[in-house]
Design brief:
Layout: E1 2-11, H1 15-24, E2 31-35, H2 42-46, H3 48-66, H4 81-104, E3 111-113, E4 116-118, E5 123-126, E6 130-139, E7 143-145, E8 158-160, H5 161-164, E9 173-177, H6 181-192, E10 196-200, H7 212-223, E11 227-229, E12 233-240, E13 243-249, E14 255-260, E15 262-265, E16 269-271, E17 305-307, H8 318-334, E18 347-350, E19 355-360, E20 371-377, H9 382-386, E21 393-399, E22 405-412, H10 415-427, H11 432-436, H12 446-460, H13 462-466
Parallel strand pairs: 1-2, 1-6, 2-3, 6-17, 8-15, 9-10, 9-15, 10-11
Antiparallel strand pairs: 4-5, 5-6, 7-16, 12-13, 13-14, 18-19, 19-22, 20-21, 21-22
Helix pairs in contact: 1-8, 3-4, 3-6
Length: about 475
């Protein structure tokens, strides 16, 4: 058995782990990066990038189908599922290759292959023949799809999003459970590529949205395109041969049965901390066995251990994971001089069509606060109608007293761009009046944002809206 002593050990070579490793090295060279799985981040391998490749193909197909509305005849539109998935896998592998190349540039002696397990607060067992004694440790083990274990009875007819990107061809039909970020993106994209899609959810939630009016707008648009029940009543789901039979009560209150090729579990993800041996440590854990940590320093309790990225399930987004990797790596590197890290304005985007964007404080988070809401519908917004993208609703929230912009939720065309503008305004601490003083071109979708801001300004009074 070999024993190695290090200043910092980073467990996990994903987005957060890679940044944590590089940041910790700014304080000490005695750092190791431990990874038992394949190199290549979740984003590159099974997340952000391959999903956008599938969505891009779906957008091309949808544009061809929608062309006659502009007076343009395209003829019969045919989707070649094999070609679609060939491009998805090829480009996915290219993105993964860039990540792997970056990892391989790390000195070999600082890259350790194998799964790590805590023996105690400072000792990690890696594989069968290596013990690492670390003064400080960063947990950056990411997350894994979560679904009811009873669904395992479906065998290879049950898929998670990770599996989809290895398809050789598109199936005829699927049932998606979970209209969250992953479910909406992949479900709508597959529908537009010719797959028969049924989507089921619970609790009336659509994506990450919390504003009931925006949820209603999103539900209306999605249900007009494919079957979606965000508060489903499913009584049976059983594998029969190479298919899955599902009995449910539909949105009209009628009992129905369908047979699909696959069930896609998009019911969320859980931190990948099982098997780390955290029970062998004195680290404080919650009821799920996830370390309790300070969201500003990412320090677990009062220990020398830090947790970053999807492993802490705080803000499971790529840019947040890299920020957390920087904070955790910096604090682990200079420990015990632990400092709060700078965080950016919360920003989330769902690449459905129309898109969803969440900025700053959400409707749900503002419950009980003194705020005013302004809104605009995109149904009659000029540029949106020009592009035949006139669906959705934008709601912005402002402090009643100061007029400061607090946040927004939206479902609308090109929300990824509106989301960025609003995130910059929020991070700059602008008031509604200051935002209205910014230039707005014509005709652009951003004019819809101006309408929502004017709605807020009217409600709180222009004097307050302009207050610094």
């Amino acid at each position: 058995m070999q024993t190695r002593y290090v200043d910092v050990a980073v467990i996990g070579a994903g987005s957060a782990g890679l940044v944590a490793f590089r940041t910790a090295r700014q304080h000490t060279d005695n750092v190791v990066l431990i990874e038992g799985g394949a190199y290549g981040t979740t984003c590159a391998r099974v997340g952000c990038m391959p999903s956008k490749l599938l969505i891009a193909a779906a957008e091309a197909a949808h544009a061809a189908h929608a062309a006659p509305a502009f007076g343009i005849e395209t003829g019969t539109v045919k989707v070649d599922g094999v070609a679609v998935m060939n491009r998805v896998r090829s480009e996915r592998d290219r993105f993964v290759g860039f990540v792997v190349e970056g990892v391989n540039n790390i000195p070999e002696e600082q890259r350790i292959r194998g799964y790590a397990r805590f023996l105690d607060d400072h000792r990690l067992q890696v594989g069968d023949d290596l013990t690492i004694v670390a003064k400080r440790i960063v947990i950056a083990t990411g997350s894994t799809p979560a679904y009811p274990r009873s669904w395992d009875d479906l065998g290879d007819r049950l898929l998670v999003n990770d599996d989809i990107f290895d398809w050789q061809d598109l199936p005829s039909s699927i049932a998606v459970f979970g209209p969250g970020v992953i479910g909406l993106e992949l479900g709508q994209a597959l529908h537009r590529l010719g797959v028969d899609v049924h989507m089921f959810g619970l609790g009336g939630r659509i994506g990450p949205l919390t504003d009931p009016d925006v949820i209603s707008s999103a539900r209306k648009a999605m249900q007009a395109e494919f079957y979606l029940d965000d508060n489903a009543d499913v009584s049976r789901m059983e594998r029969v041969g190479d298919a899955v039979e599902i009995d449910f009560v539909d949105t009209d209150g009628k009992a129905r049965s369908i047979s699909v090729d696959y069930v896609v579990a998009a019911t969320g993800r859980r931190p990948s901390v099982a098997g780390l041996g955290l029970e062998n440590t004195r680290l404080p854990l919650d009821g799920r066995g996830v370390p309790l940590f300070d969201t500003e320093t990412l320090r677990v309790g009062e220990s020398h251990v830090f947790i970053a990225g999807d492993a802490n399930n705080d803000r499971p987004l790529l840019h947040e994971a890299t920020d957390e990797g920087r904070i955790a790596g910096s604090n682990a590197g200079r420990y015990p001089n632990v400092r709060p890290g700078e965080r950016r304005t919360p920003l989330g985007v769902v690449f459905s069509d129309p898109q969803i964007a969440m900025v700053g404080s959400t409707f749900g988070a503002l419950a009980g606060s003194d705020y005013v809401t302004g809104e605009v519908s995109f149904e009659d917004q000029g540029r949106s109608r020009v592009m035949l993208k006139n669906q959705g609703l934008l709601r912005v929230y402002a402090d009643t007293t100061s007029g400061r912009f607090l946040g927004a939720e939206m479902f609308g065309p090109r929300a990824e761009h509106l989301g960025h503008l609003l995130a910059w305004a929020h991070q700059a601490g602008l008031t509604i009046g200051q935002m209205l003083e910014m230039p707005f071109y014509h005709p652009v979708i951003e004019e819809g944002l101006r309408s929502a801001l004017r709605d807020v300004a009217t409600k709180i009074g222009n004097t307050v809206a302009r207050a610094a």
